[in-house]
Amino acid sequence: MVKLILMNSYEYQEYITSAIEGYAKEKVLSGNWNEEESISKAKDEYTKLLPKGEKTKNNFLYTILKEDKAIGVIWLAQKSEEEGFIYDINILKEYQGFGYSKEAMKQIESVGKKLGMIKIGLHVFGHNKVARGLYEKLGYQTTNVLMEKEI
């Protein structure tokens, strides 16, 4: 069983660096951004979403622990009184495939319920079939699909 603990400032600094790099890479892979602009655009987005870092109001950034070892992160934002949004869930590569994401998702849903949320949304890149499969198994439904084709 995994445990969620709120990030401290040190954990946040480690997280934000890797999150920006990962997000920039995903945006390039999905064809949204070119590589040259990706890091600066990712930094801008994170700065807008988390202007006060891990202390940004209505944002809950957790370290995911397995037997007191940090194995990943999950970030839930409260968008309104009743709606939340999972901006990020990331399990370290060596811990993937053991069901830890599923456990963390169920726990973050409990956190959301305690905060009064009745709905939680998330975004998943179209090319991330593993994550899409997990979210569907957990009952998340597709609400929008964007498609494009290079011609």
Structure explained in plain terms:
By secondary structure, the protein is α+β, with helices and mostly antiparallel strands. The protein has a single domain (2-137), classed as Aminopeptidase. It is 40% helix and 24% strand. The protein has helices at residues 9-29, 35-49, 100-114, 129-137; strands at 2-6, 59-66, 69-78, 83-91, 119-122. Strand 3 (69-78) and strand 4 form a beta hairpin. The termini are far apart. The mean pLDDT is 92.
Briefly, what is this?
By secondary structure, the protein is an alpha+beta fold.
SSE topology:
Blueprint: E1 2-6, H1 9-29, H2 35-49, E2 59-66, E3 69-78, E4 83-91, H3 100-114, E5 119-122, H4 129-137
Parallel strand pairs: 4-5
Antiparallel strand pairs: 1-2, 2-3, 3-4
Helix pairs in contact: 1-2
